[in-house]
Write a structure and sequence with these properties.
The complex is a heterodimer. Chain A is of the alpha+beta class. Chain A has four helices and nine strands. Chain A has one domain: OB fold (Dihydrolipoamide Acetyltransferase, E2P) (Beta Barrel), CATH 2.40.50. Classes of the chains: A alpha+beta, B alpha/beta. At the A-B interface, loops of A face loops of B.
Amino acid sequence: MKEITQLNLPEDVLYADDHEWVRKDDGTVKIGISDYAQDQLGDIVYVELPQVGDKFDQKEAFGSLESVKAVSELFMPVGGEVVAVNAGLEAAPELVNTAPYTDGWMVEIKPKDPAELESLMSKDAYVEMLKGL
Amino acid sequence: MRYLPNTEQEIAAMLEVIGASSQDDLFATIPSECRRKNPMKLPPAMTEWELNQHMDKLADQVSGTHHNNVFVGAGSYHHHVPASVSYLLGRSEFSTAYTPYQPEISQGTLQAIYEYQSLVTRLLGMDVANASMYDGASGLAEALLMAIRVSRRNKVAVSKAIHPNYRQVVNTYFKPTGYEIIELPYRPDGRSDLAALSDITDLAAIAVQSPNFFGCIEDLESVALKAHEDSKTLMVACFTEPLAYGLLKNPGSLGADIACGEGQSFGIPQSFGGPGLGMFAAKKAYVRSMPGRLVGRTVDRDGKGGFVLTLATREQHIRRDKATSNICSNQGLCATAAAMYMASLGGTGLRGLATLNYDKSAYLKKRMIQAGLRLPFEAPTFNEFVVKLPAEFEQKYQQLLKKKIVAGLPLAPYYPELAGCHLFCVTETFSKQDMDTLVEEVAA
């Protein structure tokens, strides 16, 4: 497991306390899991994603990640409608481990209420939270 | 497995190691109010021959298949179990092995289950099979719940020609869920009536049994086509007599998404109704929604072959309330028996045995018709069929029981509209003479 100082935590995304990240795009947001989360889970062998058009509230489970050891739920950092899913993860789930913030993204959604983004953490706040774990 | 009592000396030796002065001292932590004060009221001990006589007398009170001609199947079939299966299954490596909780150390157990899975997928024409469910009925209930998970819908259509006990188990599983069960009627020819589905949308699954409870072979292909008119509806093919697929086209090749049912026919004695074996197989696309456990074959870091419990992350002991099923075990010994049975017969043997069942059953059917009896259903059958008997037959049925003949299963308790109809079954274990005698008695 990585030390907090070894984690790759970019500043251009916002973090949720369930370890998902959100990157704002043009009217939509992309969602994935943080380097901390992928490191804790270990080798990801399967990513179960929702379908385009599915709608979720903030904090609602939208899919699951299967590692060798466990299956973990994925929670929506902000509510909204799914406009795209990362189909590449079906054949290459390990992208979540190797490129959590780029090729390992999971879903793109159209947020229902952009104000929900304000409940998320900056990199510094997320690091503080991790130190408390 | 051996059940040898401990001698006084052995008990004393064990107590000494533990550091307890007596057995009462050993059990001192059990509160006295939880402990029996008086000795159990048991009859005096019998000798071994007395006990055998006692058990024989008990066995004679029921019409078991040993000394009777029981023309009844209806979900539990009297098939010959080859001596090789009984012998191999009795080996303590198999008979004492418990479900593998530290799976990878039990390579032999895992390989036995893996072979079972491989044979089940070949028999049913499906991509993947699990390590087994408890029995055919729980397999069907789990299949319907799986279809609900996959489709994210909450309504299933279940044919009335599925075994009544299976439907009862499904109802029990569904009762607390709020999911809806729509019952499909059967047609005058004995097969499920798909016309009833024309106005129904948003189904998670359409489930039929083939051969169905009346012995009729369902048109699985039409059921699959009907189900797949809606891209989300799964076709569930259930069975109580897997031997039929030694002869008939298997569910997978006819479009089934899930195939499930009872495996008792394959080397497992009827044993007064259980234990059974739930066979369960699906298309690969649905493997992660499958209930129960699955053994996979892989290589270790040195490239050596081995077996693992795979997808166990979705089982109850890891995933808790989010698990695909609340069953966290499998019918290990019965599954092993079924694997040994299928391997003993082989593909050709299975086909030969299935043909024998079909032919013998066709013979009895023909004789019944010649004797002037009416067969209410016209659909083709495998080794079971329904016969309409004369009004006064009930009395004769009782007389035949005394002659050690069980003349079919009366259907009225399950289907009141079929009063006077009995379901007959013929397996390889019946001789021509058995059948001729039956027809003479029934027609007399």
